[in-house]
Amino acid sequence: MIDKTGSEGFVSFDHVQKSYDGENLVVKDLNLEIAKGEFLTMLGPSGSGKTTCLMMLAGFETATHGDIRLGGVSINNIPPHKRGIGMVFQNYALFPHMTVAENLSFPLEVRKIGKSEREAKVQRALDMVQMGEFGGRRPAQLSGGQQQRVALARALVFEAELVLMDEPLGALDKQLREHMQFEIKRIADNLGITVVYVTHDQTEALTMSDRVAVFDDGRIQQLAPPDQLYEEPMSSFVAQFIGENNALDGVVQSIDNGVALVKLATGDLIDANPINVSKVGEKTRVSIRPERVEFDMNRLAEGSHTLKAEVLEFVYMGDTFRTRLRVADNDEFIVKTRNAPDQVRLQPGAVVDIGWMPSDCRALDA
Amino acid sequence: MRNDPANQEPTGPVLAADGTPLKKSLSRALRRQKMRALLLIAPLLAFVFITFVIPIASMLFRSVENDIVANTLPETVVAIASWDGTTGELPDEEVYAAFARDMIAAVAEKKHTRLGSRLNYELSGISSMFRQSGRKMKRWDPVEDAPFKEKLIDLHDGWGDVSTWAIIQTYSAPYTSGYFLTAIDMQLTPEGVTMQPEDKRILIRLFWRTLVMSLVITGSCILLGYPVAWLLANLPASKANLLMILVLLPFWTSLLVRTSAWKVMLQQQGVINDVLVWAGLVADDARLIMINNQFGTILAMTHILLPFMILPMYSVMQTIQPSYLRAAKSLGATNWTAFWRVYFPQSVPGIGAGSILVFILSIGYYITPEIVGGTKGVFISNRIAYHISSSLNWGLAAALGTILLAVVLLLYWAYDRIVGIDNVKLGG
Predict the structure, then answer these.
(1) What sequence ranges are listed for the domain ABC transporter (chain A) (predicted)?
(2) Is residue B251 part of a domain?
(3) Which residue has the higher pLDDT, A1 or B197?
(4) Side by side, which strands form the sheet with A11-19?
(5) Distance from first CA to last CA of chain A, Å, rounded?
(6) CB-based contact (8 Å) between B345 and chain A?
(7) Whether residue A159 sits in one domain with residue A19
(8) What is the mean pLDDT of chain A?
(9) Of A254, A286, A311, B381, whose CA is between 20 and 30 Å from A349?
(10) Which of A110, A111, A118, A122 to mutate to test the interface with B (most CBs of B within 10 A)?
């Protein structure tokens, strides 16, 4: 799924491996091309190797094998301070003994930039994150969101072309986090910088990124734009990790015309889109998004397979209804429906028929 | 507008529901808690009061206390008040008679020798004068043996000396600044306050030496301790624990043993000299003198006080997240710049805490200078110990101690003004 633009990317990982103890690989054979101006997110559970990749790019960890290139030049042997990569840390790492302005001035001072130019750049960077008034404050006198903005400004003030962000929004509350997501995205787009963003929050990854690399077990499981990642997960792990997902285990009964017939443990038959299965008799896990489940049988194609489902719980969530069902012995089957005047509100205990378009139901690896 | 009564009197005190002022009601509610807390710390308070506040107060008092003259010679003190010693004439018979009556009474109570020792601090020889005269005056009668002037001068030449009476007159007040003046190499004479004779001025020099050597010790502790503390804070836990044990190891051995070990190492026939001679670096007849001088004291005390520097530094450095250094490097700083501009300023509170601890400990140190300091490497505390246990001049010892206390407080104040005591952290 790598977006091959013909030439080599701005940042490239070439067969990169990393081991800390000489026994286990934390990063296993990573190949990744990041285009100039791209916003790429490394998403994955903790221990999946995403932060290690970021640290190797920043220069704080060395790759045990392989090559990391920036603008076509191998940077394996370039120390971090000469790479010119901006970085936003998880806990912001604002120097507590310096004021906000001094913090921003620091990268310019070590680059021996003159005082007047320095002050102008600092002010411009602070204005960009709407912190122009706060230059004289100490980091401890700022709120979490304000510190976040300052950290961002500090990573941008020396005009780095590549900015790395290591879970920068992890410490903020939900509302602020959502606000900052758009803010960071807007600034990155305006400046045209390349951003590599590490997070374990999939909403963050989906809303901000041009492309998302889903990490698990030291490998990229899928690299795709957010919509593709959500709607066309290529493995059970990605399907489970991104968004909410319903999974049903079964065995492939037949594959015909691009539609797989899957027999569930209960004996029920369903139609699915064969993604990771090719042979009859193969074990599979089918996955279906909660909002793609249909109650209205008239909207399904002729001859579609349907299932009996018992309503266990109905939760009113304002804009949506969330219904928990028992489907083929799975008690955690979730269906989300839009709150509309004609939408039915199912009562616990009711038994209904559910179905879906075969294309929305993906037969993945078991 | 609202008709709520509480809003009609915005200027009055806030009232509780029952009409009493809220402050009063709150303090009543808290009183029980406060009493209980006080009761819990009462044993500690009592302990601190008895073992700390009272001894220090009594020391401060002893450094100016001088009622022994007025108590032992009550009539003499009154009679001699009008005498003018500067004329060079002896006091008249009235003073001698008063003195004789006081002495006869004092001899009966055996108080005269103590007075003699006290005045001996100011005029040497006066102690034996009191003792000898006392023996003979025991048989005198205060009425029948009058007049006394001639008899006393016969008894001992000293009673015919103006300076004897001048000393008694000078020290007849119940409080004196004499001890403090002695402590700073001055003296209280009948002519007023003067400097001690040149050859007796040792205490100011000793104070100065104590300060300078303590500063040198503190400085060497910073230089030696900083890298160790940094290692402790940055090594992986298992190695850091081992290192920590090594740092704390000296605490498991007695101070006396450690100091004596330095004696074995440093003396002219000691381990270091032997090795240097063996290696041919030093000639056998030119062995280095490393002990019984300032070098020995500084070396041994730096070793002994080092943990007190390392521990506060370590606990502060532990709180400095490694991401600060990473951030600095990612912003383009070299290792040195990152350390000097980002790490070091954040570790200053630890250096401050360690320095205060080491400096205050060393300024009052006694055992180590006593053992390895010889005559040139001793501290003011050794002089205080001498006056407490050998010369028994407790007043002077108290005055020296008080000055030491004042110097420490002054330096603490100065530190607060320059660095700020808020900048001192022992951790977290």
Answers:
(1) 11-242
(2) yes
(3) B197
(4) A25-34, A11-19, A65-70, A73-74
(5) 22
(6) yes
(7) yes
(8) 88
(9) A286
(10) A110
